Every structure is written in C-alpha cells, then in structure tokens.
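Sorry to interrupt, but I need a hand with the structure work. It will help me judge whether the discrete encoding reads sensibly. Write everything out right here, beneath this request:
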Amino acid sequence: MNMEKEKTLHSRILGDLERRILSGEWPPGYRLPFEVDLAAQYGCSRMTANKVLTQLARGGLIERRKKSGSFVAQPVAQSAVLDIHDIETEVRSLNLPYGYRLDACTRRSATRQDCALMELTGGGAVLECLAVHLAGGRPFCLEHRLINLATVPEAEGEDFGRTPPGAFLISRVPWNAAEHRIQAVTASPEVAAKLEIARNAACLVIERRTWGADGPVTFVRFTYPGDRHALVARFQPGG
C-alpha cells in the first residue's frame, strides 16, 4: 500500500472515530476496537491504526491501557476561576447527566474555625452541608459548605436534599464580593471514599467565600479528582 493511500486512510479513520466520540455515540468508558480489528475493518496496516489511536490519545479523547485496550476518556471539566456558577452547569457542559446527593446538613453554633473561614466577628449560627455531585453516575466533586444564618436565615428551612445549596444561594441571595483560593491536595481516606478514587490521589480544591450587603454569606470547599478538572481564567492587560 502506498504512502498516499495510507495518509488518506489515516484521515478517514481519524475522522470516523472522532465523530463517534464527540457525538456521544461512543460515550466515556466505551472500549474502542483493537488495532487489529480497525486494520481489518478499514483495510489498512496495523501501523496506521496505531497512529490513529495514538493521535486520539494525545488529543485527550481516549485513554490507552496496557493489555486492556483503548477507551473513550472522561471529559475534563473546566471552571472559570473568576465566575460563580453551580456545579450542575459544569456537568451539563460535558454533556453528561447530572446527579446530586446530600450526605449531611446540620445547624450548629459557629466554631472559632468557622468564624475564621467566613470572617464572622460575632459568632452566631451556621448551616453546614456536605454533598457529592455526580456526572454520568460517577462522583464529580465533593462539596463542604457553611452558610451564615444571620445573613441567610431562610436557608434553615430549605430542603437541600432536593436543591443543592449553591444553586439556592445563586438564585436567592445577591452577593457583592467573592474570593477564590485554589490548591492541590492529596485525597484523605474520607475524601477518597466519597469520590471513589485512590487514597492520596491528587485532588484540586477550590475554596470560595462570598459576601453580601448584610455581611458574610457562605464559605464552600469543592474537591475534585485532579485528573478530571481544569481551571480557566480570561483576562486583559491592565489599562
């Protein structure tokens, strides 16, 4: 087979596989045909099939696993660092079904650590929520949130088993200032169990504090599996 024909076949195979992945015909986790099967299907050499799979892997569309084959990769979510939006928006942007599970929601007096996290000067009561957000049935991120009940008293009567607290706050409570803190951590046993990842796996943590006209509103810590999330910031040179 001449080189020109191989190049044409390479482009055709690559286009076919990309279309099936990007259209969702082959969803995340789907195992692609083996090199020998692709070669037989398209009438090309195994080298050509291998080059196509290598190119897809470099582009982040598939994962190649020794002795197991090639699988459609889980898409990597992107968070805009300077934006405030709910987790469902992130999941929907990946064309994956969204799910949510509230593990705990407790009203209690603010501790010294809570006051430091939220910049509370007079103590008071807080609502503490722990939840897991799901994408395509898999844990997407872990949410640990504190809500200042002095500023948002209506949160105490809200059913956060049905509505995530972030979505509630965005729709109901105006904010006029926010702060983000981003860090890389390793997963503790508790976090690893909730995110269904290995202990000490790399995680991306985004902490956010928001304030409204009446004072501190909320502190939240989102913990993501490090291999499934990326941060994006758009900015302009100072004028």
